[in-house]
Amino acid sequence: MMSKRGTRVATWKERFFVLKPACLLYYTGPDQKEMKGSIDINNSCAVVPTQEKTCRFIIRTKIKDYELNVSDMKSKNEWITVLQKAIDNDDKDIHYHRDELIKRCQNRWTKKQQLAEEREQQKIRQELIEMKSRELEEEKQARAEAEARLQLETALREADKDHMKELEQLLEEERQAKRDEELVRAAQARVLQEEFEKREELERLKAMQEQLLAEEQSKREGIEEERNKQAQLLAAAKLQLEELQRERSVADEQLQVSGQYHPTTPFLPDRQTNKKNILLF
After folding, report:
1. CA 30 centroid distance within chain
2. What percent of the chain has pLDDT above 70?
3. d(CA 3, CA 82)
4. Where is this region: Disordered (predicted)?
5. How far apart are CA 263 and CA 258, in angstroms?
6. Coil, helix or strand for 133?
7. What is the three-class DSSP state of 12?
8. % helix, strand, coil for the chain, step of 5
9. Pairing label, strands 46-49, 12-20
């Protein structure tokens, strides 16, 4: 396939060219159903490559010039070589053209073979690429699964670490609770010991107080007993005094009756005796 520049309208159109003996035919497509024209190839023609670094070349005939464009420089050089050979061998007999046709057919067949081999190699390369891609995809998937497992294991390890931290924290809290309980027990023991000591002190004070009370009671009982004794002595002294007074009264009466009564001083108890009795009381 080459592009041909129009003569009336300067536009490029794709055409399928076929080189025949003494002419170059061009069609609308590779099926060669519709021929659009032909170019006479003889020794009056010339193939001129463009000066620019493009894939264009010009076929100059007696009638007009045809400007063509190919896809790459290799195709350009091949077409120029083939057309130049056709121009140079225009005056040769038909055998030359037949030989050239055979050569072209052989070259075409060789190219087809090469193309088939290239396609086969390309197919093999494509299969290798696909296989490599599948291997890479499987490796990528395996790596992704490994990374997922690693992330899961990491998450599990982190969870285990968090769980261990929680357990350690709970264990530390339990230890702290035990220490606090021991401190409370020690404080309670100290309080109980202090209470016990206070109770012992109170019991000792109570015993001392009871002893003092007993001693005081004993003293009071002794004093009371002494008082009772003094009261008894005083009562006995009073009785004795009253008895003496009665006896004196009787004696006075008898003396009066007998006429020998002389008034006497009234009986006064001894001051010292009275004072002693008062002190004893």
Report:
1. 69
2. 88
3. 17
4. 252-273
5. 14
6. helix
7. strand
8. 70, 15, 20
9. unpaired
2 neighbors 79 (Cβ within 8 angstroms): yes
Query: CA-CA distance, 25 to 15, in Å (whole number)?
Result: 10
pLDDT mean over 61-72: 90
Q: How far apart are CA 224 and CA 232, in angstroms?
A: 12
50, 65, 68, 63: which is closest to 12 by C-alpha? Answer: 68
Q: What is the pTM for the complete model shown?
A: 0.39
**Residue 86 exposed, middle or buried by CB count within 10 Å (0-12, 13-18, 19+):** buried
Residue 68, CA distances (Å) to 27, 42, 48 in order = 14, 18, 11
Tokens of 236: 């006995």
25: β partners: 18, 38
- Mean pLDDT rounded to a whole number for the chain: 84
| 73 Cβ neighbours under 8 A, 6+ residues apart | 55
Contacts of 96 (CB under 8 A, 6+ apart): 89
**Section 160-182 average pLDDT:** 90
Residue whose token pair is 């003496």: 244
Cβ-proximal residues to 14 (8 Å cutoff; 6+ apart), any chain: 1, 2, 3
User: 26: which strand partners?
Assistant: 17, 37
